[in-house]
Every structure is written in structure tokens, then in C-alpha cells.
Amino acid sequence: MSSELVPVEDAEIVNDPDPTGTRDHHLSGETIADLKRATAESTDRAYDRWWRMALAWCEQEQRTALPMTAQTLAEFIGHLKRSTSPRTGKPYSPSSLNQAVAAVRTAHFRTGFEGQPYTRAALDLIKVHRQDRAQDGWRAKRANPVTLDVLRLMLACCDQGTLSGRRDASLLVLGYGLMGRRSELAACRIEHLTVSDAWLTVFLPMSKTDQDAQGEDVDIPRALAPDIDIVAIVGGYLEGLAEFGATRGPLFRRIDRHGNLGDSLSGEGVGYIVKKLARDAKLTDAERTTAHGLRAGGPTDAAERGVPVPFIAEHGRWSKNSTQVLTYVRPADRRRNNPLLRRD
After folding, report:
1. Mind listing the pLDDT tens digit for each residue in 125-154?
2. What is the pTM of this model?
3. Which residue of 7, 149, 162, 240 lies most exposed, with the fewest beta carbons within 10 A?
4. Fold topology of 8-135
5. Residue 46 and residue 132: Cα distance in Å, rounded?
């Protein structure tokens, strides 16, 4: 089996030579391409970047990258731990180093070295890195949750007399109502929306926690708040799309300054719109208000109302084993159940 150093984007599950002359160990190009699609494009790009860094470092240090020993992986992570990101000028975070380890393991899997390299030493280094940063006062930064109060300020910046303004308002309320990932918003299609008098139902054909694409309907009540009617907001945008003959296809699309429809928004495009609206609304620390803030806003408000965690997690499509949803719920629980809070 070849140990050629190949970048992740070009790596394939190697077709082993078979001395019997059969094709039992052969994969077609179409099958290999489909296997690559099992990893999200954004994740694949990140893995490719880390793997290229690993290749360059191994070449510089005269180490073998593929297959990589546990010691080489540990030294590579140690190198990153002592380095700064060329993009931010800041030290790499523990989560970034975890992604680097995952990228190396993925490169090995794709080239037939499944199970290699062993990661215990590398992960222990990341643990030490996390502890050192905590001692220095570092805290993980999280996106500001777009709660209803924030949502109102951002909606006020959407000119719903224009198609782009109606799009932006719809993106905000759907992101909040779905507790949606930006990838889910970018993937929304017109035909996946069902509007009734009291509810807006969105069909999600797949999500991060539904990789088998079973699909599910997410019901959003018409009144997100007494003054926020999601059916009216999204319905107005759908009417605008219909005027352009768009009754099927991507829901969120690029719109030029003349109001002409373009192709579908990417996840990055969704994020850009949210950040722009945060700046327009002059939010405090607007740069930390991202598309993920829409996903965080719904559970934050729900926790304040005392909604049980399992219902929040199910609506937002968090894995049953995920603790992420608790990062939104715990602050509300701490305040509501604070032992020093007077009840008289």
C-alpha cells in the first residue's frame, strides 16, 4: 500500500493490489467520491488545512507523515501548542488542536491506515494546554445569544419594504425559531415550508445529528412573541420570491442592489448577514453576535421560561449525548435556583 504524502482533498481509500487478479479490493471513482461526501465540506476544508500543515512540519522535521507515529503526532501537537495562528496572531485554542488531531486521523483513514496513529499522548498535551490557558485566565468565547430582546433590535434594521430586507428578517426569525445551525438555514428550501394559521413547519431533510437523512419536521409557533409574527414575516418574503417566479428551490438567496435574485446563500453568507445586522443595530460587542447566536437565543429564552432541557434539545436537534445545550440552560438554572435568592 502506498505511503505517499497526499493532501486530504486528494486522498482516497487506496485500491489494494490483489495478486489473484480479482477486483475484490477495488473501489470505483464514483464510490470514492460519494465516500468523500460523507464529511461536510466545511469540515473537509478545515481538515485539509491542518493536514497540509502536518505535511509541511513533517518535511521540515524530517519525519514521516504517513503513517504517522504516536510520537510524531505528539510532537506536531506540541509544536502547534507553542505556535500562534497566522490568521489571528493568537495561540491555537484547545478545540483547534483537537481538530488537528482529527484531521490527521482522517487522512490516515482515507489512505488505508485506519486506526493510526495512536492519539493518547497528543490528547494529553491538549489537556495540559487547556489547563495552562485556564491558569492564565483564558475562557472560551461564545457567541452572544440572540434572545428576543436582541432579535427585536435586529429586526428593526430590516427594511421589509425591500426583498432583501424581508429575506434578512425571515432569516432571523427562522434561525431563532429553528434554533438553527447556519448550514441548516443555508439549506432551507421553499417547498420545505408549510404555513398554517398558528404554526410554521419546516422540514429539515438532514442535519448534523441526522447524518442518515431521515428528515424531520420542526414546528414553530406563529407568535414567537406578541409582537413577532413569524408567519407574517416569512409569508411576506415568500410572496416576494413568488413575484420572481421562485416557488421552489433555495429559500435564502443572494439579492443584488437592484433587487434581483441570485443563487443560494452559503453558510458564510448567512453569517455575514447576521453580523451586518448586529452592527446596524449597534449591539454591544456586535462582533460576537454571529449566526450561532440565533441558535443560542431560543434555548436561552426557553430556559428562562423553565422549559425542560429534553424538549429544548429535541427541538434544536442536539444529540442526546451532547452537553452543548446545557451551556445555554445552566445560566438560567443558576439564577432561578440560586440558594441566596430570597423567596419571601
Report:
1. 999 999 988 888 776 667 788 999 999 999
2. 0.71
3. 149
4. DNA polymerase; domain 1 (1.10.150)
5. 25
